[in-house]
Amino acid sequence: MESDAGLAPEVESILAAARDRGGGGERVAVDARSLTDAFEAAEDDERVPIIAEVKPTSPTADGERTDDPIELAERMVEGGAAALSVLTEPEHFGGSAETLERVREAVDVPVLRKDFVLHEAQLDVVAADVVLLIVRFLDEDGTDDLEDLLAAARDRGFQVLVEAHTAAEVERAVAAGADIIGVNNRDLAKLEVDLGTFPAAADAAPENVTLIAESGIGTPDDVARMREAGADALLVGSAIMDHGGDSDVAANTRRLTQAETDT
Fold first, then answer.
1. Domains in the chain: how many in total?
2. Catalytic site includes residue 12
3. What CA–CA distance (Å, rounded) separates 202 from 199?
4. pLDDT at 244
5. Identified catalytic residue from 53, 89, 120, 169
6. Mean pLDDT, the chain, whole residue set
7. CA-CA distance, 12 to 91, in Å (whole number)?
8. DSSP string spanning 40-104?
9. Is 28 inside any structural domain?
10. Residue 144 is part of which domain span?
11. Active site residue 215
12. Residue 208 annotated as catalytic
């Protein structure tokens, strides 16, 4: 695939690395924990459904967390996270498949594998409950078709979070058969965040789709804004991880999961 001139250089670097990575070898089969059931359980417990992200660093982070990722994951669950997201991209996010495997063994909530998956073989790396497919990076020269990759992931037992950024991408995701769609508030062209992105794009999704707001969510007010716009759940990384700091990730998680009961 040729370089996308519309992408930020940091994202293009991540994609270049992803194109060069192969699969894990043997075909993965997963007995997945239900993400939507976890969201419903959080709602029943009067918690905002939050997917808390174990992300040691990122191109947009001010620093990194060197804490044991297993301890961080357990503390996030203690803080009320309905599910976890674990970065497995090694070069830009400090993640690994081994970390995801260890986290999934340590917790009883669904775990999302956060990575740039471009080809079916890249699904066969590690067992996770959910995998991420990004609309913008599929259906292009040198990548697999979104609909085919979605089917291949489900055939292995994965649930699939399909990420979009615009209403048109949401429509593409729905047409491909996605039933869990994340709307990323971060524009990958400039790496800028606009919390108006989710409301604008979410309107394109039918009512039977589970909608997740991603990126830029850091305060209870942000949580309220996304929920009012129709978010069934929220994916939060930096505000919980506190890159470059050492705050308690359980407290950071709880501040968001309890946002609706504290107002």
1. 1
2. no
3. 5
4. 60
5. 53
6. 90
7. 13
8. HHHHHTT---EEEEE-S--TT-SS---S-HHHHHHHHHHTT-SEEEEE--HHHH---HHHHHHHH
9. no
10. 9-22+41-257
11. yes
12. no
Global confidence as pTM: 0.92
| Annotated catalytic residue 247 | no
Set 184, 185, 238, 252: catalytic member = 184
Q: Does residue 36 belong to any structural domain of this protein?
A: no
Handedness of CA 258, 107, 160, 140 (dihedral sign): positive
Q: Which of 55, 120, 238, 252 is catalytic?
A: 55
263 in a structural domain:
no
The CATH number linked to 147 is: 3.20.20.70
Residue 13 lies in a domain: yes
Catalytic residue selected from 89, 120, 169, 214: 214
Clarify whether 91 is annotated catalytic: no
Residue of 85, 96, 185, 215 with catalytic role: 215
**pLDDT tens for residues 2-58?**
334 477 887 888 788 778 777 777 999 999 999 999 999 999 999 999 999 998 765
- Give the integer Cα–Cα distance in Å for 223 and 48: 8
pLDDT of residue 12: 82
Residue pLDDT, tens place only, 62-115? 656 678 899 999 999 999 999 999 999 887 777 889 999 999 999 999 999 999
* Eight-state DSSP code of residue 215: S
Q: Find the catalytic residue in 85, 89, 114, 120.
A: 114
Evaluate if residue 251 carries a pLDDT over 90.
Answer: yes
What pLDDT shows up at residue 61? 56
In sequence order, the 6+-apart residues with CB closer than 8 A to the CB of 105 are: none
Instruction: Read off φ and ψ for residue 235, nearest 5 degrees.
Output: -105, 120
Q: What pLDDT does residue 9 have?
A: 81
Position 63 scores a pLDDT of 57
Is 3 annotated in the active site? no
